[in-house]
Design goal:
- The chain is of the alpha/beta class.
- The chain has ten helices and twelve strands.
- Helix 8 packs parallel to helix 10.
- The chain starts with 5 loop residues before the first strand and ends in a 22-residue tail after the last strand.
Length: 327
């Protein structure tokens, strides 16, 4: 069983499923969405965060760096500047131990299953009202056996609500076993354009839609998440395609979460030494996705903006739960 690194176990999360949740972020994703706000979860391997703003140029890290990746140079103004050549870095992490100011940190850590579960359920007392544990990433389906075992333990031994955030890129044979242990599947659909999916995102739209539809036909609890990205999937034709497709599942989905583009993860690209292709792109305001919200609601779909909202009325067995829409 391939065991992933864990980038974070986030407690008191409010946007990764209903209620108060603990979200487990697994490191590794086969997709390469250029707007990703969790770039630290793309690569399966450990990486180094370099926080230039925390660096005091004390030079301790250069003393332990045997590869020459870290150097302390002098500017013409006689100021010390830290240089980090990642191409020379061997990931020995000696610099991490040497840094007194946490300017250099390791991204992700190895944890055994017992430790992950123990930390994930430490806030179980707060999971009333539909809360629980969400397995996220990266993408949990990159580690199907591990994710299945984690979901099984959380559901059958810890008796908590289990949700999964996924792009549904995988084979159905890897997804179907999860039906027994997962209470909610939150499935990203990033475009209805086959070419964009293949060339920009790096997977098959047909596979994503096929898996999502099979989940729905299996009577799984499914929410669709639509990241709305400037100049990628926010045109009038994109809105129409989303609405036409999702409208056929009104009454079968627990909701649609519209996620307007935001630049909260921009600093992560700098800290990881990555190129941010969306550098300078302005965040989308909630008002900018109102046409999509209205069109989906007219199809009979429950819609939120920015994440799962709280229930505002008692559950109606005929109409389903009602959710507030934050715009």
């Amino acid at each position: 069983m391939l065991t992933p690194l864990i980038t974070e176990i986030q407690r008191f999360s409010l946007h990764d499923g209903p209620g108060i949740r603990t979200t487990i972020f697994l490191k590794g994703c086969p997709l390469h969405c250029p707007w990703c706000h969790n770039p630290e979860a793309m690569n399966q391997k450990q990486e180094i965060y370099f926080h230039a703003t925390k660096c005091t140029t004390c030079g301790l890290c250069t003393q332990v760096c045997s590869s020459g990746a870290l150097t302390l140079d002098q500017t013409p103004g006689n100021q010390a500047v830290r240089r980090f050549d990642r191409s020379k870095c061997t990931l020995c992490f000696k610099c991490v131990d040497a840094c007194l100011f946490r300017a250099i940190e390791v991204v992700a850590k190895s944890m055994d299953m017992d430790s992950i579960v123990r930390e994930a359920v430490s806030d179980k007392m707060f999971y009333t009202g539909g809360g629980g544990v969400t397995i996220s990433g990266g993408d949990p389906l990159l580690y199907p056996e591990f994710t299945l075992e984690l979901a099984r333990i959380l559901k059958t031994k810890e008796n908590v609500n289990v949700a999964i955030e996924t792009t549904c890129f995988s084979k159905w044979s890897k997804i179907e076993p999860l039906l027994e242990f997962v209470d909610l599947f939150m499935v990203d659909i990033k475009s209805m354009d086959t070419w964009k999916y293949k060339k920009v995102i790096g997977c098959s739209l047909q596979d994503v839609l096929s898996n999502a539809e099979r989940l729905i036909r299996s009577n799984a609890n499914v929410r669709i998440r639509l990241p709305v990205i400037p100049d990628f999937n926010d045109s009038i034709s994109d809105v129409k395609d989303f609405v036409d497709y999702l409208g056929q599942f009104a009454g079968k989905l627990s909701g649609v979460d519209i996620l307007p583009y935001h630049s909260y993860g921009a600093g992560k690209y700098t800290n990881l030494g990555l190129v941010n292709q969306y550098d300078g792109v302005k965040d989308l305001a909630g008002e900018q996705v109102v046409p999509l919200v209205n069109a989906l609601q007219q199809k009979g779909l429950q819609v939120t903006v920015g994440g799962v909202a709280v229930m505002t009325t008692p559950h109606d067995t005929q109409r389903g739960p009602a959710y507030t829409t934050v715009v």
